[in-house]
Design goal:
Blueprint (H helix, E strand, L loop, with lengths): L8 H9 L25 H14 L7 H10 L6 H9 L2
Helix pairs in contact: 2-4
């Protein structure tokens, strides 16, 4: 049975990538002592980095920690908009 909508793997990957940026309000886990809770990621920040996540780091989806590391490791290859997001969130 379908619900009238098909989710493509690309759309699913894009949706998952939207929640992967550092500073996501969900990135601090319960029980993490001293975990820093940052401001939630804005829509603009998500839009800036989603193409870079899908291009450079999609093998790490949905592991937010690994995606963040991948973005940092590839900082020189990021789009200017995503690079600005990553630098501002460090």
């Amino acid at each position: 049975m379908t619900l009238g909508r098909t989710i493509t793997s690309g759309a699913l990957a894009g949706a998952l990538a939207l929640s992967t940026l550092p500073g996501n309000s969900l990135s601090a886990h319960a029980g993490d002592e001293g975990a820093r809770v940052s401001a939630p990621v804005t829509l603009e920040e998500r839009q800036a980095c989603t193409p870079d996540v899908l291009h450079l780091c999609k093998v790490f989806i949905p592991n937010r920690t690994a995606i963040t590391g991948c973005l940092i490791d590839n900082i020189e290859r990021l789009s200017p908009a995503c690079r600005n997001v990553m630098v501002s969130r460090r």
